[in-house]
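dude i think i finally got it to work??
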Amino acid sequence: MTTLSTRSILLLVVCILIPLITGVVGSFFTAASVSGWYVTLSKPWFNPPGWVFGPAWTILYILMGISLWMVIRSGVQEQQVRLGIIVFGIQLFVNLFWSVIFFGMQSPIGGLVCILVLLSLIVTMIGVFWKISTRAAYLLVPYLCWTTFATLLNAMIVILN
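look at this
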């Protein structure tokens, strides 16, 4: 077992904070609509209660940050690592943009298009991370599963409304 340096621990904290802060920014768009517009939408029978989303996304963002940290620790001088960081950043932006479109713009159809793009980016990110660290890639599987479920919810909201 190796001990982590202060620098490595600091990097881990930063890597975790990046997706968490992105999630907080996204929640500003979500919060305004959840108690208003979103309540009026017809939702499928399998829609989880609202309180599930915050803890689920918090855990997913933490796993994403740990995964990013594992990739960065492999060496940013490596081209594949730099590609992984870029794909991570793009998917995180699209993740945030989904909240802006779905909740901020109140557009389930736009949200569906956005989340389909996000799904493809997550799969791409897992593929890139896999080449660097299989553990880092495995940490992203819950994110892929949850986003797949969220895509189904989004699609059902489009169909039902």
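Helices lie at 6-34, 37-40, 53-72, 79-104, 108-132, 134-139, 141-160.
im so relieved honestly
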